[in-house]
Structures are given as structure tokens and as C-alpha cells.
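Newbie here. two chains, one complex. Structure please?
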Amino acid sequence: MKISVQKEDFDLNKEIDLLRKDEKVGAVASFIGQVREVAMTLEHYPGMTEKAVAKIVEEAKGRWNVIDCTVIHRYGELQPTDRIVLVAVASAHRGDAFAACEFIMDYLKTQAPFWKKEHREGGARWVEAKATDDKAAERWK
Amino acid sequence: MKVKLRFFASLKEQLGREAEEIDVPAGVATVAALRTHLVKRGGEWQVAFAEKRLVRAAVNQEMAPAAAAIKAGDEVAFFPPVTGG
């Protein structure tokens, strides 16, 4: 399992190749989130962030066949089309890989301490949490 | 008892600080009670921690509900609902 909260960008191919090494792996599902339209600064809670993500990954492992998994989330200043987050899950079969990947992403949205501040013309403003994100996480209960 | 407070994102900006160590009265034993205690500082504190404002908390770097207990030496963080991903 790899969890990284970092400023730097990541290489999808490299990350996926690391997950494919095990012969038991038959499927890798991955998700990339990127900055849409407006430049932003991402703040997080060093120390807690890594723990919160690890807890989410542990929960996913308890629910599905997860052979290996990588979560990378960037922080700092990001421009439109910059990658923000990678969730990649390696499983024996696709069903588990898809489900665990989506679960981790939904929980990360509501449980991991990250905050986005958008830099629009006329000023910066903190992004407000969406009720739809809470609903997305709720459906896994 | 002494607890370490931390603030993030809009709360940090509004309160003009990211961390602070405070001595709270013995009766302040939960996250909710600490929040009420901070409201009493008035000014921006009253606005930031008003009941209608959505404020999340973490105790020792774990998400904590309003009823969560706090004890001496804890790190208690307050922040708006998270918006990562």
C-alpha cells in the first residue's frame, strides 16, 4: 500500500506498473482527479491527512479483495488541468477493483482533511463542501 | 487543563492564527463544550464558531464528533468541512 501526500506531480504509468507486479492481480482500476478551470491552492493537515487516508484504505481492504493500492494526493498551488489525486486499486477481478477505487475516492472527499481555495479574478475564495459528496459517501454504509 | 488548538483553511484565516495552546476550565470536557468556550471570546470567534456555522473537529488527528471527549494534552483541530479530491 502506498499513501503519499505531496507537492509534486505523479506518473500514472509508473504507479500502475508498481501495482501490477503481483501475479495474483487481474485488474487495476484507477481514478485521477484534476483541477477544473480555476487555479487553486490546496491546504491539508500534515500528519492527520496520511492517517485519515490510511484508515479509508483499511476499510476498503475489509470490504473487497484489494491486493495492492496507491493513493497520491497533491497539495500546494495547482493550475487548471494539473493532476490533484490518484487512487489506484489492484485486485484479482475488476468488480472489486472498481468498487474499492470508487469507495476510497468517495470517502476521501468527505473524510480526508484537504481544503481547496480557488483563485478567481477579483479574489480568492475557499471552496464550500457539497452535500452531493456527503451523499456519495453515505451510499456505502 | 492545557490543550493545543489548531485551525485550518477559512477558520485559520478568519481567526488569524493556525495554532494556540490554551488552558481550559475543568468543565470543558468535550469538543462541543470547547467550541462554546471559544465562542465566549467574542468578536471573530463568535462569528467563526456560531452554531449555524458548519465546523468540523479532530481530536489527536482523528475526526471527532461534537460529543467526543477531550483531555489534557490533546491536540484539537477545528476546520470547515473538507473539500479535497
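Moderator note: Residues 2-138 of chain A form a domain with the Aldehyde Oxidoreductase; domain 3 fold (CATH 3.90.1170.40). Chain A touches chain B through 28 residues (CB under 8 Å). Thread marked as resolved.
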